[in-house]
Amino acid sequence: MFKLVCGAGNEDVESVKRLVFVYAKAGCEYFDLSARKEILEAAKEAQRLAGIDDLHYCVSVGIKGDRHISKASIRSSICIKCGTCFRNCPNDAIYSSIIVDEKKCIGCGTCAKKCPTGAMTMIEKDINVKEILPYMVENGVEMLELHIMGHDKKDLDYKWNVINECNPKYASICIDRENFGNKEVLERIRGMIAHRKPYTTIVQADGIPMSGCDDTFKTTLQAVAMAEIIQNANLPVHIMISGGTNSKTAELAKLCGVNYWGIAMGSWARKVVKPYINAADFWSNEEVQQEAIRIASELIQTI
């Protein structure tokens, strides 16, 4: 199973609409969306335009301290307008005038890492999960995902309880090893699934979140390694490989004896179709659409 990650922080309605259209036409059936009403509506409109009857949606939220709920912010007092940030932003969320478009920002933090003066910072932009998640399930979303790469256990417990109260078909836990060792990762997962029915939980094993910058084995190595850790623990969960995934992920997983329920692909999947998605005449140019669909289809077939 291939899941397209439009981005937990991606609130760009038009971008999401085009991505879902292209990947739905290419054969993708699962889509990961920002937990915003207008984003779900855009995805469903794309589904209608694609003429696909059966698509499945996941919405993602994060706990405090997780980069998936952060947005880039510029401290203008120390910004030297060198352009490093907008040249390196993978989602075109920063303009040359050094203005951040928060709707496009996915919280990857690339701009902050590259900024030579420290003018780029990341700030948290949380949402009211008690309000939005029940709406999502009521409107056909079957998977609710919680990104838990943070140390705020109180916020984790609160949001996980909300997800369980919503009773989606699947509850998903997205976790990596940036802040935790292997033992703590497994302890956290075991605690979260203790009262859930077997195989109603997905563990999205994030190698290095939002790192799918190229199409090499090295880039996807940590994603497969993270999946292996979950597999070796013999937990009653489905394993989704993510975080640096690309066209090499499935091949490497098979070579390493790592079994998976699905592969979630965001950065690389968006990058390969970006020139076509960004075309000004996308909706009127069938050649542009067909080339984007061809590229997306080839990527999906690698899994």
List keywords for this structure.
303 residues, alpha/beta, TIM Barrel, Alpha-Beta Plaits, 2 domains, two-stranded antiparallel ribbon, 18% strand
Written overview of the protein:
The chain is α/β, with parallel strands linked by helices. It has 2 domains: 2-64 and 129-300, Aldolase class I (TIM Barrel), CATH 3.20.20.70; 68-124, Alpha-Beta Plaits. The protein is 41% helix and 18% strand. The chain has 11 helices and 12 strands. The strands form 3 sheets. Strands 1-2-3-8-9-10-11-12 form an 8-stranded parallel beta barrel, surrounded by 7 helices. Strands 4-7 form a two-stranded antiparallel sheet. A two-stranded antiparallel ribbon has the order 5-6. The chain is globular and about 50 Å long.
Helix-strand blueprint:
Blueprint: E1 2-5, H1 13-26, E2 30-34, H2 37-50, E3 56-62, E4 70-74, H3 84-88, E5 94-95, E6 99-100, H4 110-114, E7 120-124, H5 129-138, E8 143-147, H6 153-166, E9 170-175, H7 182-193, E10 201-206, H8 217-232, E11 238-242, H9 249-255, E12 262-265, H10 267-277, H11 286-300
Parallel strand pairs: 1-2, 1-12, 2-3, 3-8, 8-9, 9-10, 10-11, 11-12
Antiparallel strand pairs: 4-7, 5-6
Helix pairs in contact: 1-2, 1-11, 5-6, 10-11
